[in-house]
Amino acid sequence: MSVRGFRLLLAGQLSSTVGDYCYAVALPWLILSGDGGPVLLGTVLACYGIPRVVTIPLGGVVADRIGGRRVMLIADLVRAVAVGILAVVASTGTPTLAQLAPIAVILGACSGMFIPASYTLLPALLTKEDLGRGNALSTMVNQVGGLVGPTAGGALVAAFGAGPALTVDAMSFLVSAVVLARMSTRADTADEESQARAGTTGQDGDDGGDGTGGTGTDTSRKPSFVELLRHGRLLHVVLVVALVCNLAFSGTIEVALPELAHQGMGATGYGVLLTCLSLGGLAGSVLAARSRPVDSPAYLFAALAVVMGVALGAVPYAGGLVGAAVCVCVYSIASGWQNIVVVTMLQVWAPPALIGRVMSLVMLAVMGTFPVSVAVAGFGVRHLGAAPFFPVAGAAIALAVLGALTQKAFRDHRSGTEYAPQARPASPDPAEGSVPDAPAVRSTYPRQDNSQESQR
Questions:
Q1: Cross-strand bridge partners of residue 235
Q2: Does 456 fall in a domain?
Q3: Which terminus of the chain is more exposed, N or C, with fewer CB under 10 A?
């Protein structure tokens, strides 16, 4: 990509991801090396996780109001200070719950604000035609950081202790903040050009029409979020699919997979499976970046879901570690590609002023199901064993997406389609009688009737 802001974003992402994994190694090591043990670790992680989930919707709203880049910049600066304080505390001794809990709450809240805001940045930097490849490259950078970061964090903790590793994380937030501060979006450039032309363009121009076609959509009116929630059938379908798929996936990977490995593959085998999960995701991102955009993303999404379901269901029956590793890798390749397809689809479809709130709903569906999924998986694995859990989860994923194809808004969705607001009934001028329909205004991208009635 030749866009300077996008290249800066990738550099900031890589720095931040490596720092995050240094933190992920340093924090548990710091706590478990003291007197707190797993109870203190669990409490601190809860202090982080709960605010993160709670602030995700707020992050979407604020990002849509003041801009995702500003939200991300503020969140990174606050996190740099918070982790820096934690690094100082760690270097002076073993921190207590009273010291760790407030820092964890701040970090969790900032993460929740950051997540939906980050999904608004790529559409502000890239054109719609480049979004798919941009999402793929962005995901690849995060996954490379996920491969490098744990090793770097472990080496730092082993050699110097938790304090230096936490300092690296704090510095990574500062690097990300500097990158965001230097970045300019397409909207920023347009504003500068508009201000430069102010006073030179006449005020006697005409807008060329009222933007209302005769097909029941109003292309000139900006929809509200409430309207999008009521009439955005595509969003409804994606949210249901996200809920079902993550209910099936999270518990399987976090509970059933380690139990399966513990029964016959050992700790080394479990590590191999997790490595395959990461490498497969990276390979899926590479495939998404190199593939040509498809006209009907819903069918690609469904095909990948079938591959995911079959691969996940075959994990316990593939003939030991090698077969299970292949199945996990295939699942992760399809999953990585599928995630990029659906994120790009929503970023193009959602009105620019509502992308933050739309993605915050999707992230809630993804992250909010985690506690339920792992609890159900724990109960199911205990009573049924680990092996039966995989085909059940795989079938749930495949059937959820195949069921989505029965919905017209999902099945007939085309690449580049944007949400079209419903036209409001016009009040005819009593002096002139009825007003004929205005001619439709052409748009670069096709628009879609998203009403509930159109799905029947």
A1: none
A2: no
A3: C
pTM across the whole model:
0.73
Read off the DSSP letter of residue 254: I
| Pairwise CA distance, residues 162 & 188, whole Å | 40
Tokens read off for 450 = 């998203």
Residues of the chain with pLDDT below 70 are 1-2, 36, 186-221, 422-456
Amino acid identity at 352: P
Alpha-carbon gap, residue 122 to 13, rounded angstroms: 12
Per DSSP, which regions of 356-396 are E strands?
Answer: none
- Residue 129: how many other CB atoms lie within 10 Å: 14
Residue 374 pLDDT: 78
In sequence order, the β-bridge partners of residue 447 are 418
**Are 137 and 245 in the same domain?**
no
Q: How many domains does the chain have?
A: 2
**291 assigned to some structural domain:** yes
Can you state the angle between helices 68-92 and 4-32, rounded to 10 degrees?
Answer: 30
Res 441: pLDDT: 35
| Inter-axis angle of helices 97-125 and 321-349, nearest 10 | 60
**Judgement on whether residues 232 and 329 belong to the same structural domain of the protein:** yes
Q: Check if the beta carbon of residue 99 is closer than 8 Å to that of residue 93.
A: no
Single-letter amino acid code for the residue at 84: G
Give the domain extent around 76.
4-189
